[in-house]
Each structure stands twice: as C-alpha cells, then as structure tokens.
Amino acid sequence: SNKDVINGLSGAIGSTLSISIFYPVETIRTRLQVDSTLMASATSTSTARNSSTFCLIYKIGKKEGWSSLYKGWHSMVVALMCLNFVYFYCFHLLRRWLTEYDASGEQLEEIIGWIKMQRQNKMIVDLVVGYLAGVFAVLVTGPLWLVNTRSKLQGVNVDGSDKEKSTSGTKYRGMIHCLLVVSKEEGILYLWRGTFTSIILSLNPAIQLGVYEMLKRHHLLIGNARKIIGTLEPFVNALFSKFISTICTYPIQVIQTQNQAGIQTTNNEKKQGQAIVRGWIQELMQNIHRQGIRGLYRGLESKLIQTCLNSALMFVVYERLKSA
C-alpha cells in the first residue's frame, strides 16, 4: 500500500541524512575492524589518551587528507538507501499481513492459529518480521555493501600487513566499475561474500526494531510527556535499542567486514569446497585464536558512537516524515 511505500521512503531518507553526518566515524570503525596495527594503537595504554575515535579521525585526516574520511560515501548512501527502503517496506508490509491475515484452510490451520496466538505478543511479531525483512534486504543489497567496503579500504593495508595484502591493487572508479572488476576477477558470486554473516546479522535490526517498537508502545524511557515526545522519544528509544542490538551482534560484524575486505584468516588459502557454516565458524575460532576475544570487538567504540547516533537521528527523521 501507499503507507508501506511511505514507511520505506522515510527510512531511506532518514538513513541518508544521518550517515552523511556521521560517516567519518563509520570509516574509522571499518579501518579498526580490518587493521590490527590501528587497533593496537587505539587500545595501547601508552597512547590511549591520543587514540580515541575522534583523535583517530584527526590523525587519518591529517595523514591521508580529509577526503579520505569520506571514501566510499557515495556507495554507502546508495546501499543504505536501498537497504532501508526494502527493510522498512517489508517490515511494515509483513507486520500488517501478520496482524490482519484471517484466511482459512486446512493446510494453513496451524500457521493461522500460531499467528492469531502471537498477535497479543507484539514484540515477538516485531522480532520475527524484523528478521525476515532483514534477510530479504541483505540478499537484495549484498553486492552494494561489498562495493562500499572495498571503496573505503582502497590504499589501506588490511590486517596490518606491509605485504601486498592491500585493497589498493585495483583502483575503483566508481560503484559500477567496482562491481564489474570484482565479478570479473573474483567471480559474480563473490559479490555476495559475507552474505551468510549478513543473514545472521539480520538479528541486529530485528532486535533493534523489536526493542524500539516495545519502548514506543509503552513510553518506557521518557514517560508520557506529550510536549517533548515528538522528537525526544524516537531519539532516546532508537539510541537505547541500537546500543543493545550492537553489543549483541558486534563480533559477527567484525567477521563480516573482514570477509568483505578480502582478508583470509587461514594463511591466505581459499577453501572453495568448504561448507559455508563450517567455514564461518572456523573463521570465528581462528580470529579468537589469533587476537583473543578482544579482537572480536575491534572498533566497538567508534561503532557505538556512529551507529547509535546515526540510528537515533535516522528514527527522528523517519518518524517525522512518516507522520507528515
């Protein structure tokens, strides 16, 4: 319906405005996840005072130029607009279908019974619908996220290596060029590298939206002060819900970013016949073995700053546009 399209467009516009403001922090987060030397400098006790997220932004801006902090911005905006349009459109469409569906039929009797039973537990409905919408969105936009990661990391030696383990081998002249080069040199299916991880990570927006909608229904964080609820409520609710979902899923995001950057965690050997699930678990365990549990939280500080503020601003714009 038109309302579902409006929800999708509101999410897309809100995400574009918010990521444009906080993009340098997103760049730092990506760099920290794939560059262990940058991570070491950011966590060293001797340099801690000078290696906060904002200090790293300043250092990289001075060293590589301020424009380097906006590498991949265009591809990020396109990917995020597509992702959030699909996500919010599917979320509201599926939720409306689940809450209104009243068909009958013997083969659907059990499913319909479960749906009717869960209508009273709206948070479960939001979690299920949020996850399904997230899975569909990442399948549609997967190649765009790989392009964005490659664009941001051009000229950067990933994993702290001085060898030719860098994304700088090929200079991408834009999104289309990157898509063509990657599909030609590494195969079309490589464009969906890390998609299995993205499917798992669909838990992130599902948890966020489930918590957000629950807080929104009950006004748990700021009460019923109607004068300030218009702007403050979505900001605070989105900030809190994104914090919870990010903490729960961040280690998976680190593995995903390393996959998209092309890092091989097994002595650069490509395991072409390896099962996806087994390969992902193996990568996770090897990451822990090489860098410890702490390595799975590389860039968490910058991620929390970027994603929580970004989400809070996005939901303020989203709610305003949706109700306009």
From TrEMBL:
TM helices/strands, residue ranges: 73-94, 124-146
Highest taxon of source: Eukaryota
Keywords tagged on the record: Membrane, Peroxisome, Repeat, Transmembrane, Transmembrane helix, Transport
One Gene Ontology cellular component annotation held by this UniProt entry: peroxisomal membrane
Main location: membrane
Renumbered ranges of Solcar repeats: 2-97, 121-218, 229-324
Subcellular location: Peroxisome membrane
Residue ranges that the Swiss-Prot or TrEMBL entry lists as coiled coil: none
Pfam families with a match to the protein in the record: Mito_carr
InterPro entries: MCP_dom_sf, MCP_transmembrane, Mito/Peroxisomal_Carrier
Molecular-function annotations in GO: ADP transmembrane transporter activity; AMP transmembrane transporter activity; ATP transmembrane transporter activity; coenzyme A transmembrane transporter activity; FAD transmembrane transporter activity; FMN transmembrane transporter activity; NAD transmembrane transporter activity
Topology term for the membrane: Multi-pass membrane protein
PANTHER family: PEROXISOMAL MEMBRANE PROTEIN PMP34, PEROXISOMAL MEMBRANE PROTEIN PMP34-RELATED
Family per similarity comment: Belongs to the mitochondrial carrier (TC 2.A.29) family.
Protein name: Peroxisomal membrane protein
